[in-house]
Amino acid sequence: MPAPQSGAGPTLTGVRPPPRLRLARLPTPFEPLDRLSALVGGPRIWVKRDDLSDCAVSGNKIRKLEFTIAQARQENADTLVTCGGLQSNHCRATALLGARLGLGVELVLRGEPSGTPDGNLFLDHLAGASVHCYPARRYQQEHEALLAAHSKRVQAQGRRPFVIPTGASDAIGVWGYVAACAELAEDFVQAGIDPRVVVCATGSGGTQAGLTAGLRLHGLRAEAWGMAVCDDAAWFRNKVHADLASWQQRYGVALDTAALAVNVLDDYIGAGYAQAGQDVFQTIGLVARTEGLVLDPVYTGKAFHGMLHEMRHGRFRDAKDIVFVHTGGLFGLFAQRGQALAGGALAVAGAEP
């Protein structure tokens, strides 16, 4: 079992970063999407392949969990208690990492499964996590109480729980993408580019918070842009600023987080969380056929579709290069393969992004 190591990279903030477990396969690749860029026109598109951060534990979640689980270990916890939707990438990553590290995992999930578990939910069970599902309305109304109740139950069993919020998006989790920006800085040097725009899907705000602070701390001129996949832009601006303020206070970071711009676009949410329209599935198919890059309908498909739409309508017209952070989510696509077929993801002709 790996021991916690200190540090998120260079001490850029005047404080020593918290303990970190080296669990991800880093650095992840940084690649141009030249065939797609030529098709779409406008800035050259680059992708940070955080979907390759590990084999099954793929995506952005592992970066945050390197710090979160290290904190849990430091507090002598033996059980991780966390929450999310039925197809939560974060819960799947927590389940698999818990198994890898010999920790118990309790998952509190929003929604009621029908039929055989699929996608991420199947992997939750495969990894041996204890899965507790609740109707969406009850989950939304009693979310904090449900987490507290399961934590209390774990304690009554003589175990030591550590509660992780949705997406590991809190002050600890911010470090995941602060650290990732050190990789991006090196990627930009190696590629010979100086981008002004870094796009990511934003679903619980932690990845965008880390990017927003990390880009500034590493002296990069790029700004993070979050494509909302559930709540509106105002909610995410408040959430990201709150996470950054908590991070700054907890770790004594010498950065005026209140002055950081939090850029969020909320025009591509569709019918709601984990509900993608035909246009998103067509974009998923287009990107797969053009670049062999697989997106998911919950996070990256919506975000990439939104980015292409904004590019076509001139928002990033002054950018020479634009960077997309691929935050994973492959298994969520399998769980919606019926919708993907109906939505035209497998159409032979290329679809308009």
SSE order, as H and E?
EEEHEHEHEHEHEHEHEHEHHEHH
The proportion of residues in beta strands is 15-25%
Q: How confident is the prediction overall: mean pLDDT?
A: 92
Oligomerization category of the chains in this entry = single chain
Shape annotation = globular
The strands making up the biggest β-sheet line up spatially as 3-4-12-9-10-11
The CATH architecture classification of the largest domain is 3-Layer(aba) Sandwich
**Total strands:** 12
Largest beta-sheet characterization: 6 strands, mixed
Cα separation of the termini:
45 Å
Overview of the molecule:
By secondary structure, the protein is α/β, with parallel strands linked by helices. It has 2 domains: 5-11 and 18-58 and 170-342, 3-Layer(aba) Sandwich (Rossmann fold), CATH 3.40.50; 61-168, Rossmann fold. It is 43% helix and 15% strand. The chain is built from 12 helices and 12 strands. A 6-stranded mixed β-sheet has the order 3-4-12-9-10-11, sandwiched between helices. The chain has a 4-stranded parallel β-sheet with strand order 7-6-5-8, sandwiched between helices. A two-stranded antiparallel sheet has the order 1-2. Helix 3 links the parallel strand 5 and strand 6 (104-110). Helix 6 (174-191) packs across helix 7 (206-217). The longest helix is centred in the middle third of the chain and has 21 residues, at 136-156. The N and C termini lie far apart (45 Å). The model is unreliable at 348-353 (pLDDT under 50).
